[in-house]
Amino acid sequence: MIDPDDLDALVVELNAGAARPTADGHTARLRGWLERVVDQSASDLLLVAGAPPLIRVSGSVVPLPEGPLGGEEIADALVSALPPHARKAYRDTGIADASFRTPDLGRFRINLHRERGRAAAAIRRLPSIVPRLATLGLPPGVEGLTKIPRGLVLVGGPTGSGKTTTLAALVNEINLREPRHIITIEDPIEYEHQHRRGVVEHVEIGIDAPDFPTALRAALRQAPDIIVVGEMRDPETMQMALAAGETGHLVFSSLHTTDAASTVARIADSFPLERQNTVRQELAMALAAILVQTLLPRVGGGVVPAAELLMVGYGARQHVRKNAVHHLHQEITITRKNGSFTLEESLADLVRQGLVDRKEASARAGHPEELERLLG
Questions:
Q1: How far lies 92's CA from each of 78, 85, 88, 97, 185, in Å?
Q2: Of 31, 58, 121, which is closest to residue 302 (Cα–Cα)?
Q3: Could you give the CA distance from residue 323 to residue 200 in angstroms, rounded to a whole number?
Q4: Tell me, what's the pLDDT at 103?
Q5: Do the beta carbons of residue 120 and residue 114 sit within 8 Å?
Q6: pLDDT > 90 in the chain, percent
Q7: Mean pLDDT on 44-69
Q8: Report field, pTM of the whole predicted structure over 0.70
Q9: Residues 148, 245: contact at Cβ < 8 Å?
């Protein structure tokens, strides 16, 4: 019979072993979870105190065959995977974002945070290959964004709608086709582009630059043709992106928005009231296009994207200047010849192809009556 004291010592030793770094610098426990993510083709690993480890497979959250985790277990398993700047951020603020690489498993994005005073984490598996635009299932007109010579191109959509993937695919098409100098600024880097006809520099916040404004300010002095700002989170970054779009650069960025009108309003409303009118004038000059996308359940399983695209012309610029953004939907219908299309047109195509249920499409439409008219 094992002495209880010896058993307690054995448990301590086993737990310590699970927290020791492996050859790639990550704990054995973290590596074990990531192996399950890869083996089951999962997109995410979720770690929450009081629950077993969870993986997301085809959109559904599935528990791993392991007991509930404690907050200290989660912190012990993950902190060593963070780069120094992210460890400091977690110590100082309780929140850290970073990417890390495991040589034989791939790259992952980690968000380590606290909930109810305990450590928790969401880890996203990052693709090793940048997708081609044609493989994303977006409407064909989206390719036109790769041929815009200058200005600000915004990609909007809710969280998890594939905005980052779309940005990467757009940049990839340009990189494969044109000899351009491209700078991406991200927190953290998600897709790694190879040098093709163009040359691509990746700037990661916290490692290569302290914040987005500093990175963007430096990028403007590095003779770029194209700048990708992973997300415009603050007025200073927005202001600099607008200036870059006005001065001859092609700037891509993303925002958490639901349509073209809310995308414009989101930027203007981020500034103090006394600055908003000036910002609208600058935005009207800089804007080249707004793409907003969402993901819908696909008939038979999986998801499929629907989108709306506004190619910005004279009419849209006037609406932005006058803060009449409610007219932008109408402007999309007016500028179809320039490549614009409405969300309802995209949804109608998906329904006709049998990819999306008609009721689901109607629930997602901003203008359901327009969708019904298109479907007859």
A1: 16, 11, 6, 13, 24
A2: 58
A3: 36
A4: 80
A5: yes
A6: 83
A7: 94
A8: yes
A9: no
